[in-house]
Amino acid sequence: MAYVATRGGERAIEQAERLFRAEMGTITPERINEIKAAMPYLVDRVMGEASLYDEDIAALALAQTGGELYEAVLVLRAWRTTQPRLSVADPIEQDALFTHRRLSAAFKDIPGGQLLGPTLDYSHRLLATQVLTGEAFDPVPVEPAATPAPAHQPSVSAWQAANDLVDLPKGDATRPDDIPDITREPLLFPSKRAHTLQSLARGETGGVLALGYAAMRGYGQAHPTVNELRLAEAEIVVTHPKGTKFSAGRVKVSQAEVLSKKDEKLELGFAATLGWNEVKVIAAATLDLNSAGAPKGSATEEEFFLYHTEGVESSGFCIHFKLPHYVTFQSSLDAMRDAKARSAQQKEPAQ
Amino acid sequence: MSLKTLTRDWEPMSYGFLDASAKRELRRKMLKAVAVPGCQMPYASREVPMARGWGTGGLQVSLTLINPKTCVKVIDQGADDSVNAASIRSFLAKVSGAPTTLDTLKADLIQSRHRIPEEVLREDQVLVLQVPNPEPLRSVQPNMSIARQMHADADYGRMWLQLYEQIVRSGRIMQGASYPSMVNGRHVMTPSPIPRWDVPKLNMAKHLTILSAGREKRIFAVPPYTRVEPLVFDDVPYKVEDHAKLTCNRSGARGFFMNEIPQEDGSSTHEISDSEYGVKAIRRTEGDDIVLGDTWYKNGEMSS
Amino acid sequence: MLTVPTATATETRANHTFEALLWALSRPGMPRDIASDAEAAIIDALIDRECKVYCADPVLMPLILKTGAFLSDPTTADHAFLGKLIDVNVLESLRAGSDLYPDDGATVVANAQIGTGQLLRLSGPGVDGSLQINIDGLPQGFWAKRADCLRYPMGFDIFLIDGARVIGLPRSTQIEVL
User: Fold this and answer.
1) Number of H helices, E strands in chain C
2) Which of A147, A216, C105, C169 is 20 to 30 A away from residue A46, measured at CA?
3) C78 → chain B, closest CA residue
């Protein structure tokens, strides 16, 4: 055949994928376990963005993609979407969370107490370079407190509501099966509350931070105060077809409530996600706080930030520009050349 | 009713990758898209094992339509061997067992990015176009909610104004591909970014065209025998790319949409964009028993 | 790494049914073959727990319940299975969507006889020029009522079933009673 080797494309993409995978080598169950043990926060981040809570599967996705986070989340989302929905779990109440870390910036102390839990917040960010020269880095063991902190803590906003400082959102009596699901329906505006919170929960951490930060710096109307930040484990309670309720296990969750003053009351912004990811929930709650009445096209408008923090869509579109566009480019060239020829003609002196 | 009647046996992957509920949603939305030609219908657009922006919308439609007997052709920029076309074609075959072809005449289902083949499509064929941006009003109104209201009101004034300004400024409408077109006299659509050359092929065609934007979660359709009219002013006629007199330097085909290939001496040569049509033309010249189908353009002119 | 998944009987049937529906709706007034238990096949291909269904035909009710769909009245249903239609006024209450979201207009399935009865002239998208067809088995005034209810792009879309044949009548079709 004299024209093109029509199978050339297929060979090329096959070999390109092999090159990528060759670098990662063999993926073994040990590698998956090592990723889970060594990088729980990374595993949490991709589980949150994939909206799929399974540490093994998330670690596998990280191993398979060499830690290319957008690819890891995509492969998880594509797997998730084919899985059946067996049941909708019971709602989780704040004070039922098994809380590891909980703090409020709004008060010096709060009912239930400030609970630092695991954090690097006050650590000096020094690299343990000795590891590179052969000396292991052994963390200093934790010294347990004389009296352990209570596992369950009341919500700070409940206290504020009792003192008439804030209006809590009304309880939503929607049947669990009827809760709108962003993975089964398109996002339309004005967005359903469930869709907004789900989109923020799935949002790409960097994107949510970028827009949340813009709002914090002054492109939003409301300045956030962290009313309550929690890292916790939540019991997943489902109902057996025969009617018995049982626990299907625990998942790690993060949630943030931020507030700002509006006239005589405080206004709340809220976000939660699967896994422990403090930056994301604080930034997302800030966006939520700022969205009411935000001008069209501003970074704090719901349509703007929900579309642009969707990591699978934004990263996919970004890399799609690598695809050939020579047909559309040719079409533009044609219009340009024609316009140029016309203007050249007009500039010629009249005969 | 028992649990057994409500469930099915576990399988590693559904036929055609998408599960039954995803397919049903797409089917319901495709019917609505056909019922209101050119109107963008929102759909859930599940994730598929390909990146957004890489044909996931077209892919979902193809995966819903495909069965083991569907003969599939996939092109990107008119070419079957383009890397992403190859990737989509092999995925479709892998998850459905459907046969594939490069020949437009042999295909039942054609998934395409940015082109409509040069051979006339028949009424038994379905064309699926991948769409990056389904919103023709995006350049005058980036906010989707406001743009949606404009479609609801058939308020296309700003679109017309933009085209008019281009004529004033440049002496012509500067829109390259994805030329805004009025469908069935009611909804303006962006015909994916196919070149202007291809837009007349949609007007009163015999085949059904489904346009699907996976990332933007919108699906729309041009049924057969439906008016698709590029937005033009009475005194400034619609102009396709000036390719009528170009000749493909490899196949000798003439009067079709061409790719311009820059040469080291500063000049250009041209190659036909519909690569398989070029291949068939060459093979026919070499004496193979090849059928070249009827083409939309004859001698570089669109035949009505 | 991956073997080609096989199409189950359920999948194959749904695929064929949808192909018939899509073809029929794309070519209004042209009959297309469909499964002999056409309504059951349509329910399998389109309906699940995400749908709100109005069903006037008791025979179909168990099939609809099995899909997990939410039973509703005509005003809120996205799919209406009218069976043999007696009262034409039900058309008035069907969902027609909005200018913003025409896709909220209902999909309607009803029984009729194709090829006898009232002579109609169809035109619009999907029809090459115009087309004539005889339809029987619908109540008096059906076509006038349909025309009254449609405010394009708002409206509903109809599939008429006659045994193992279906015709599609999208809201975009103009129907003239001859």
Assistant:
1) 5, 10
2) A216
3) B28
Size of chain A, expressed as the number of residues it contains? 351
Q: Which residues of C touch A184 (CB under 8 A)?
A: 50
For residues B21 and C44, is the Cβ–Cβ distance under 8 A?
A: no
Residue ranges of domains in chain B = 20-230, 258-302
Q: B35, B60, B32, B34: which is closest to B45 by C-alpha?
A: B60
Upstream peptide bond of C153 is cis (omega within 30 degrees of 0) = yes
Cβ A6–B90 below 8 Å, yes or no?
Answer: no
- pLDDT reported for residue A6: 45
Domain residue extents for chain A: 10-80, 94-116+148-169+177-314
Q: What is the pTM of this model?
A: 0.92
| Percent residues over pLDDT 90 in chain C | 96
Which residues on C lie below 8 Å from A177 (Cβ)?
49
CB contact under 8 A, A317 and B132: yes
Domain presence at residue C75: yes
Alpha-carbon gap: C60 to the closest alpha carbon of chain A (Å)? 24
Taking Cα atoms as reference points, which of B177, B180, B190 lies closest to residue B220?
Answer: B190
Residue C2 within a domain: no
pLDDT value for A4 = 41
Average pLDDT over residues A122-150: 93
Contacts of B187 in chain C (CB under 8 A): 153
Q: Indicate the pLDDT class of residue A1, thresholds 50, 70 and 90.
A: very low
Residue A198's alpha-carbon distances to A80, A158, A291, B117, in angstroms, are: 15, 23, 15, 41
CATH of the domain at C27: 3.40.50.11310
Instruction: Report the share of chain B in percent with pLDDT over 70.
Output: 97
Cβ separation C5–B11 shorter than 8 A: yes
Model confidence pLDDT, tens digit, residues B3-52: 666 666 777 789 999 999 999 999 999 999 999 999 999 999 999 999 99
Query: Does residue C4 form part of some domain?
Result: no
- Looking at the domain that runs over B20-230, which CATH code has it been given? 3.40.50.11310
Residues C42, B6: Cα–Cα separation, whole Å: 19
pLDDT tens profile A258-297: 999 888 899 999 999 999 999 999 999 999 999 999 998 8
What token pair was written down for A297? 């096209």
Place of tokens 């896994």: A275
**Shortest CA gap C68–chain A (Å):** 11
pLDDT in tens, C123-151: 999 999 999 999 999 999 999 999 999 99
What's the pLDDT at A5?
A: 39
Contact B225/C102, CB-based, under 8 Å? no
List, as one string, the DSSP characters of C1-61.
--PPPPPPHHHHHHHHHHHHHHHHHHSTT--EE--SSHHHHHHHHH-STT-EEEE--TTTH
**Which residues in chain B have their CB less than 8 angstroms from residue A343's CB?**
170-171
A184 touches chain B (CB under 8 A): yes
